[in-house]
Every structure is written in structure tokens, then in C-alpha cells.
Design a protein that fits this description.
The complex is a heterotrimer of chains A (478), B (250) and C (231). Chain A has 478 residues and is an alpha/beta fold. Chain A has 23 helices and 13 strands. The longest helix of chain C is centred in the N-terminal third of the chain and has 14 residues, at 39-52. The chains are: A alpha/beta (478), B alpha/beta (250), C alpha/beta (231). The structure holds iron/sulfur cluster (SF4).
Chain lengths: 478, 250, 231
């Protein structure tokens, strides 16, 4: 599995905030936001809401009978001549893919963008076997060359400027410096075209797995998904077990939600429907098709009624674009495969809260993510649930915080009645007195010093409202 | 029309830090003919504990809240996020008390954010406020008021009717100010970076007054405005709507 | 290694914890679908959306006009070799003769007596300037061309050359994606082989992965034509 660096969220966030190139690239997220708004307006809000509602319904129903639909999906893939492997974790999935590659004497693997394969960390495994894994989505290719993790679910190299890309190509591919973006894309096209033609195995993700027909649906724009699923002898698709949908026609429900939310496109350039390997009479296409269905912690989310909804996610990335925190700290801060609001839910859920202890707390809970989510996933509510797991949950999810919990216990006693509450107010007000200047405080000791670095803090009132109210009542009642 | 009665839930922040906002709320409601009482046993809605992950504490506070406001006809608070806590989370928090379920539902239905109560319940848009001198006013959509309660149009209607107030929309009025309770302290750098962008949008309007329905957001934005020596003044909507209306001073 | 039964049993035990919290069942059924539009409406809608999807849209009154336009397009792109699928419509257009008449070679990417082997087919497709295909259906709403490769219909003709020309008959135009999927299900119910592959192509290959700047033709064709024969 790909290493989890989420424990370093704060340092990684600080780094991004201090990096002008990254801040500039994050400012460009406005294009995604605007694209989505325009695309929904064109589609019609009412129609959109109805679609969104049916999509939720289908997911709810599917997940409630996930065993049934996965069984149906896997049997249909097999009937179509494909192989299915159920992997409990990333290690099992990697082992299987490695075996398929070894059995087929594979030398080069072309990969189309897939979050699940990032989660598995399959590229490293293949590389250690002496097999060349080549990312073929332009953004993924760039970050593969840079040996970095994807920055955004649908725009992996969002944070790279064209100068950085040019330097990277120059250093690794030996191509001349280039300031034109079209030309840079042309360089990648040329290099990758050769890889496509020589690859013996193609790996792709799966946006949806249709159980009714045993079909994997892939949504791409560049055409690399078509290449990976058409040219090499072997096609291996990996999917998270929650990506199953019952009926082929359900694709018509999810596809507009996905593309319009993600990039504001009516539809992506290519949508590929893969049912098994090539047909017996087909001119081309892979001779073998494998589908790897991955759990890797998803069954724990499924088992938690408060987290199950996160499995509705279709990975459109809209929540990242809307999130004020992502908009400042970017993708790498989150320290694993899934960044942004959905990452803040998925990462602790899959890798364990203690390994990603900051993520559930690194949110203002503003709800912008839920607003834009095509599945209306209530991310803030799930963050609260994960927070309570970290604070009050069972030993394996708890993160010790002694001082804070003592403070909270004191707080609870304070708000348990008006007497202590008023007293606490008076104490605060008195304690603040020496620090304040014209009604506000410019400096507070830790842990509040973070606030006063950029903001004044108000001084507690000498006479709180409740004291004034009594007087007020007295005046009236007199 | 029967006499309207409301219980004021002043919220802990207003009580201890911004009592003028509480006073303005009372004055405004009385000015509009509403009878106001103040259940003296009230303290907090539990939001702090809930957001911190201290669900059991939040549950205890929520339960207490239900008991304190049991007899109230309607509950009004000058805070979107506190009302949102009650609306969006009391059901979850008190799930372990099925005997309270009905009471919680009824409490939620009777609890209003101030501008929501004025516009949706009283049907008032012009409260008769008049500013001492003309001022440009910009309105920040507090996240919970907007997204949990659907409060966005109500305050704008009320503000538009204020004599002497020129309501000017800022860019991205619905984007978060970066407060998020303890987030603003635990992740102070991120919070400050979000805030910087927000204030940029505020100041670009050239507003004299920045208003909102939540003292917490105003404390956050106002704290930075003050630090920067900005001429834009933060002002809770209750105070703004009280300008120039008749009624007793506290 | 987990086998299917073990994996599914684990899911069943995860589900035993009860239903999801926060997902209330929908109150209202999805909005009704509008009544089917007329052929003219569909074509008009297609023309609009084709433009938005960056297709070069060509209306041809009949097969002859379509042939002439395809030859013109290929010539315009300086094609020496044009690869194509064995779709009937291309046969009827007499496309090979027309291309030959204009000095271009037309190669059908199909197995068969005297044909090319797999390796040669791939090399030819990769070297060709233009690929011409028929289609299985066209979606008016999104200007999506459905291509289902099978015998005679190579996957590569629409993928490897930098220019793709898709030729459709007007009666192949349907309204929505759902229409195409419904048709597919009907075909599948009658098919002997349940293995299939299909691509919806909705304009040129594109990327915006560098600084969110749009570039077309990154892996697939960067220039695409949709020719609709109206007769
Ligand atoms: S949580 Fe919603 S908005 Fe975020 S990626 Fe998933 S589907 Fe898209």
C-alpha cells in the first residue's frame, strides 16, 4: 500500500501555504468551480436534483445488498471470459497483479489514471520486479516523473507550473526546454505513444462496475484509457468494491453527475464499456481481462452506519474544489492518495484514525463540500463522527489528548448550570483585563497564541448579558 | 393576531462577549411587538463539544437544553450556528434517548435564527431601522446559517429595507471565513490564509460595515479587521437593525 | 488470498450493523423523461451539441455527398493512407474507390484473406493520417458517437490516427445516453456472446492537465468530424 504521510498534515500544509507557485495553481481551481456551476445551470437545477436524488437511492440500495451485486458482477465478468479477483487488502491485490504480469512475461505496463491503483501502490511493486510501469494520463505521467503523489483526484499535476513540467521533461526525457503547453503535451504524446505500442499489459481503474452485464465503465478525456484497454495483450482493471452499480442504464444517471461535477463537461471525451476481453471474432483488443475488486478497509466503512455514506463517492473532486482548506493547503498536505474533504473522511477510515489524526479536525465544517457533492454526501457529519472516534472512541481509533480532555471536562461542568457559567465568565473577564487594550487583546498565551498572531481577540464583557437582563426585567416589571 | 412570545437563547458567546447583541435582539423583538423572556438556566448549545469530538459532553448539554427550553413557545437566537447545531445535530446527539425524540423534533421546529424569525414567522422585512448616517453595508453568509438553515435571503431583505444602508454584495459571500471554532487555533495558519482571502473580498466592496447573523464569524473577521486597522466595522445584524428604532435602551 | 465466498461473507457481516444513517429514502420519483423529439429536432440538437463538443459537424444530403466530403477532409489533412472499418455505410459510399481516385490508399483494418496480420494492422493504423468509421448510434444530447468494435470493426481506426471521421445515418441518431444503453440491452438479450466493448466518443481527445489549459489530441485523435447522411 502507498505510504501514509497524513500524520504530517500541519507541516505539509504550512509548506503549501508558503509556496507561491502552489498558491497560484490553487487559485486556478476557480475554473473547475465555475465549470460545474455553468454545467448544472445548463442541465437545469431541478433535473439535476432529481438525478442526484436517484443516484443516492441507487447507492443506498446497492450498498445495502453489496454482497449480492458483487457476486452478480463477478459472475458476469467470468461469463464474459474475464477473471475476477477479490482482494481483502492492497497487498493481496498487488500480489495478484504481479502474478498476472509474471505469468504473461510482461515487460511494460501502461497505466491509465486510477485512484485504487495509487492506493495499492502497484507501480512500485511492478518496478521492483523489473517491469516498467508507465502512467499515461498526462497529469499522472508528470507526477510519476517527479516521483510525487497526485495533487487532486482529477487533476493530478494541478500544482505544477508549465516551467516545472518543462524542466522535468528536460531533465528526465532529455527534451529541449519548452514554454508552450501544447508542445509540452506533444512531447508526452510522442513518448507515450511508443509505450502504448510496446506495452504487454494495460492497467485501468473503473469508474463503475455494472453487475447486470459484468461491464467496467471508464471515463477519460485523453484516450489513454482506450489505449490501455485496447492495445496490450492483457488488461487488468482495479476497482474499489463500492463502485458497483446494479444496471447498465444506471450509467445514464451517474455519468452526467460525474463529468459535470468534475470538470463541467457535458460528457467526457471517452466513455469506455469493457465486458471481458476481446470478442472471439474481434480484430483487436486484449486476450485476457482481469478485474481486481478491492476492500482495503472499505468493509469497515460499510459496517459503520455513520460512515457508509462516504462509499457513495464517485470521485468527481468537486468537494476539493469547493473546500476552503484544500484551496489553501492543496493535495499533498493530506499525505495519502485521497485529498480534500472526501480524503479527510476516507483516509482515516481506511488507514485508521491514529495514522491520520489531524485530518478529521482540519476542517471548518463549513459544508461547502456537501453543497457541491453530486451525491450530497454529508462530509461534515462524518468528520464529526471521526472526531468523536478520535476523542471518545474505542482504543484503536483513539488519539490521546490529555490536557484538552481535562479542559473539556471542566467546560462541561461549567455549562451544566448558570451559576458556574457566570462565575467562569467573570474569571475570564478579570484574567483578560491586564492583557487588553481598548476592548481587545493582541496577545494570548498558547494554545490561543495562534489566534492572536493574525487577529485581535475580544475581551469578555464586564457585565454579561444575563446580568443586564435582570436589570432590564426589573425596569419593566417595576 | 395573538401576542407572539419568544424565549431568547442568547448563546454563550453573546452572553459573555457581546451582550450588546443580546440587548439589541431583545429590543428589536419588543419593538416588533413580541414578548421576550430569558430562561435564566440556559448556558450553551453544546457546539463546542460536538465540534471537538466530545460527543458525550455535547449530548449532556443538548439534553439540558431541551429541558431548559421545554416550556417555550418559540426560541430565537442571534446565531445561525447555534440554531444549526440544534437543527442538524440534536437528533443525532440524543439518539440514545428515544423518549425525547418527539420533543427534540418539536424543539427544532420552534427554534429560529433571528432574521429567520423576523422574516419567515413575523413576516416583517422593514423593521423601521434608520442609520445615523448613510453607510455601505456588506453581508457575509455564515456557513451554518446558509447551509444548514437556508438563511440567506432573509437577512438581505431586512438589510435592504434599512434606511441609509446601501447593501453591497462581496465576491464569494458564501465562502467560509476560516473560523471553524477550535480550527482557528489548532490550524491557525490555514485559518488565517482563508481569512485573508475573505477580508480581501470584504474590503473590495469598500463597505463601512460588515454584518452577519453570527457573532462568532464576526469575532473572527472583526479581530483581523481590527488588527489591520481597517475602516470596515463588524456589526451583528441585530445591532444594525436596531439603529434608529424606538424602544427602551437597556 | 480471499475467495469469493469468503469475501462476500465478510461483507454480509459488515452489513449486519444495520442501515446507513443519513440516507433517507427519496420522497419523489425521478423526473419524468420528456416525450421523444422528432428527427429534425434531434438533428438540430445534435448539430448544436456537436459544436459544443468540438466536432466538425457535416450534414450530407446523401451518400455521394458524404463520400465527396470525406475525400475532401482526408485530402485536407494530407493523407496518404486512410484506415477504415468495414461498416456497411462506408462500403455503400464506395469510399475506397473515391479515395483511390484522389490518390489516397484506403486500408480496411480487418482480418481476412489477403489482409494484414495483427501487427501490420496496428502499424498501419498508427501510421495513417486519417481513420474513417461508421457508428452504432449517435447521442444528440451530448454529441456522442457509440462505437462497438466487433468483426471488421477495429478498435484502432478511431483511436490511433490523429484525425477521426465518423459517418452516421440520420436514423442512427437517438436522444440520450439512456436510449443507447437500452438498445444495447436489447441487443445483448439476443446475442450469443455476452462479451462486448463499446466507446462513446464525444469530441477530440483532450487534456487540461498542465495549468488547466486545454490541449486537444493528447493521445487519441485531436481533430474529429461527424458526418451525418440525411437521406
Ligand atoms: S465526496 Fe462527493 S464531491 Fe467529493 S469527490 Fe466524492 S462524489 Fe465528488
Amino acid at each position: 500500500m502507498t505510504d501514509v504521510l497524513s500524520a504530517h498534515f500541519k507541516e505539509q500544509a504550512a509548506e503549501a501555504i508558503g509556496n507561491a507557485t502552489i498558491q497560484e495553481s490553487l487559485d486556478r481551481l476557480v475554473n473547475f468551480r465555475q465549470g460545474r456551476v455553468d454545467a448544472i445551470a445548463e442541465y437545469g437545477q431541478e433535473r439535476w436534483d432529481a438525478l442526484s436524488q436517484s443516484a443516492r437511492e441507487i447507492k443506498r440500495e446497492t450498498l445495502e445488498h453489496l454482497d449480492y451485486y458483487l457476486d452478480e458482477l463477478s459472475r458476469n465478468v467470468e461469463r464474459a471470459g474475464g477473471h475476477v479477483f477479490f482482494a481483502r487488502d492492497a497487498a493481496e491485490a498487488n500480489e495478484y497483479v504481479a502474478k498476472v504480469a509474471a505469468d504473461n512475461g510482461v515487460k511494460t505496463v501502461t497505466k491509465s489514471k486510477s485512484m485504487v491503483s495509487e492506493e495499492m501502490g502497484i507501480a512500485d511493486v511492478l518496478e521492483s520486479m523489473g517491469i516498467e510501469p508507465v502512467e499515461t494520463d498526462l497529469g499522472e505521467y508528470i507526477i510519476q516523473l517527479a516521483r510525487e503523489a497526485p495533487y487532486h483526484i482529477i487533476a493530478p499535476a494541478l500544482h505544477k507550473s508549465k516551467e516545472e513540467v518543462s524542466e522535468l521533461f528536460e531533465r528526465i526525457l532529455g527534451t529541449p526546454a519548452e514554454s508552450d503547453i501544447t508542445a509540452l503535451a506533444g512531447v508526452a504524446r510522442k513518448v507515450l505513444r511508443e509505450k502504448f505500442l510496446e506495452a504487454d499489459m494495460g492497467m485501468t481503474g473503473a469508474n463503475f462496475g455494472v453487475s447486470e452485464t459484468g461491464t467496467i465503465v471508464m471515463v477519460t478525456n485523453e484516450g489513454n484509457g482506450r489505449m490501455c484497454s485496447s492495445l496490450p495483450r492483457v488488461h487488468v482493471a482495479t476497482m474499489g468494491m463500492e463502485r458497483v452499480i446494479p444496471r447498465l442504464r444506471d450509467v445514464a444517471t451517474y455519468l452526467p453527475l460525474l463529468t459535470r461535477s468534475a470538470t463541467g463537461q457535458r460528457i467526457s471525451s471517452y466513455v469506455s464499456f469493457v465486458t471481458g476481453p476481446r470478442r472471439s471474432d474481434e480484430e483487436d483488443g486484449p486476450q485476457e481481462f482481469h478485474l481486481v475488486i478491492l476492500d482495503n478497509g472499505r468493509s469497515r466503512m460499510l459496517a459503520d452506519p455513520e460512515l457508509r455514506e462516504a462509499l457513495y463517492c464517485i470521485r468527481c473532486g468537486a468537494c476539493l474544489n469547493a473546500c476552503p482548506v484544500y484551496g489553501k493547503v492543496g493535495g499533498h498536505a493530506y499525505g495519502w492518495v485521497y485529498p480534500g474533504p472526501i480524503g479527510a473522511v476516507v483516509t482515516p477510515s481506511l488507514v485508521g484514525v491514529p495514522k491520520a489524526k489531524d485530518l478529521p479536525f482540519a476542517s471548518t465544517l463549513c459544508g461547502a463540500c456537501r453543497d457541491v457533492c453530486p451525491l450530497k454526501i454529508d462530509i461534515p457529519r462524518m468528520l464529526l463522527k471521526l472526531r468523536s472516534d478520535a476523542v471518545e472512541g474505542p482504543a484503536e481509533t483513539r488519539v490521546p489528548r490529555r490536557v484538552e480532555s481535562l479542559m473539556m471536562r471542566a467546560w462541561r461542568r461549567t455549562v451544566a448550570g448558570p451559576r458556574l457559567f457566570s462565575l467562569a465568565g467573570k474569571v475570564t473577564s478579570a484574567a483578560q483585563w491586564p492583557l487588553s487594550r481598548r476592548g481587545s487583546l493582541r496577545w494570548l498565551p498558547p494554545p490561543l497564541s495562534g489566534w492572536t498572531r493574525t487577529r485581535d481577540f475580544p475581551r469578555a464583557a464586564m457585565r454579561p448579558f444575563r446580568a443586564r437582563w435582570r436589570k432590564d426585567e426589573g425596569n419593566r416589571g417595576g | 393576531m395573538a401576542q407572539k412570545r419568544v424565549s431568547l437563547f442568547v448563546t454563550c458567546l453573546v452572553d459573555q462577549f457581546y451582550p450588546e447583541v443580546g440587548e439589541a435582539t431583545v429590543r428589536l423583538l419588543r419593538h416588533l411587538g413580541v414578548e421576550v423572556d430569558f430562561p435564566a438556566d440556559q448556558t450553551c448549545c453544546g457546539q463546542v463539544a460536538l465540534n471537538g469530538g466530545y460527543r458525550s459532553h455535547a449530548t449532556a448539554v443538548a439534553k439540558r437544553f431541551v429541558e431548559v427550553f421545554r416550556g417555550s413557545e418559540a426560541i430565537v437566537a442571534p446565531s445561525g450556528s447555534c440554531v444549526a447545531t440544534i437543527h442538524a445535530h440534536y437528533g443525532d446527539l440524543l439518539r440514545g434517548y428515544p423518549e425525547l425524540a418527539e420533543e427534540v423534533a418539536s424543539l427544532q421546529a420552534r427554534t429560529y435564527e433571528l432574521s429567520q424569525y423576523l422574516v419567515d414567522v413575523l413576516g416583517v422585512e422593514n423593521v423601521g431601522a434608520r442609520l445615523p448616517s448613510p453607510a455601505r453595508v456588506t453581508y457575509h453568509d455564515c456557513c451554518h446559517a446558509l447551509r444548514d438553515l437556508g438563511v440567506g435571503a432573509q437577512p438581505r431583505r431586512l438589510l435592504s429595507a434599512v434606511d441609509g444602508a446601501e447593501l453591497t454584495e462581496m465576491k464569494d459571500s458564501a465562502s467560509c471565513c476560516g473560523f471553524g471554532g477550535t480550527f482557528s487555533v489548532k490550524f491557525a495558519d490555514i485559518s488565517s490564509a482563508i481569512l485573508r482571502e475573505k477580508l480581501h473580498n470584504v474590503e473590495a466592496t469598500g463597505a463601512d460595515v460588515l454584518t452577519a447573523v453570527d457573532s462568532s464569524c464576526l469575532m473572527h473577521m472583526g479581530g483581523a479587521l481590527r488588527r489591520q486597522g481597517s475602516r470596515t466595522r463588524p456589526m451583528h445584524i441585530a445591532e444594525l437593525l436596531c439603529e434608529g428604532i424606538e424602544g427602551e435602551r437597556a | 488470498m480471499a475467495d469469493r465466498e469468503e469475501f462476500l461473507a465478510h461483507i454480509r457481516s459488515a452489513l449486519a450493523s444495520g442501515p446507513c444513517i443519513g440516507a433517507p429514502p427519496s420522497a419523489s420519483p425521478p423526473a419524468a423523461t420528456p416525450s421523444p423529439p422528432s428527427r429534425d429536432d434531434l438533428l438540430a440538437q445534435l448539430e448544436r451539441s456537436a459544436g459544443l463538443q468540438s466536432w466538425h459537424f457535416v450534414r450530407a444530403a446523401n451518400a455521394d455527398e458524404a463520400t465527396a466530403r470525406v475525400v475532401e477532409i482526408a485530402k485536407g489533412h494530407g493523407a496518404g493512407t486512410v484506415v477504415r472499418t468495414a461498416h456497411d455505410v462506408l462500403q455503400r459510399m464506395g469510399i475506397d474507390a473515391a479515395l483511390a481516385g484522389a490518390g489516397m490508399e484506403s486500408v480496411v483494418l480487418a482480418d481476412g484473406p489477403g489482409g494484414l496480420d495483427a501487427e501490420q494492422r496496428q502499424a498501419t493504423a498508427a501510421g495513417a493520417a486519417v481513420g474513417v468509421t461508421g457508428v452504432d448510434a449517435v447521442i444528440a444530447e451530448t454529441a456522442s458517437v457509440a462505437l462497438a468494435p466487433r468483426k471488421g470493426m477495429s478498435r484502432q481506426a478511431s483511436l490511433l490516427p490523429p484525425v477521426h471521421v465518423a459517418v452516421a445515418m440520420a436514423d442512427q441518431v437517438v436522444g440520450t445516453l439512456d436510449d443507447v444503453l437500452a438498445l444495447r440491452l436489447v441487443e445483448l438479450a439476443e446475442a450469443e456472446e455476452i462479451t462486448w466493448y463499446m466507446n462513446l466518443v464525444s469530441g477530440p481527445s483532450r487534456t487540461a492537465d498542465i495549468e488547466q489549459t486545454l490541449v486537444v489530441g493528447v493521445h487519441g485523435p485531436g481533430v474529429v468530424y461527424l458526418v451525418v447522411i440525411e437521406e
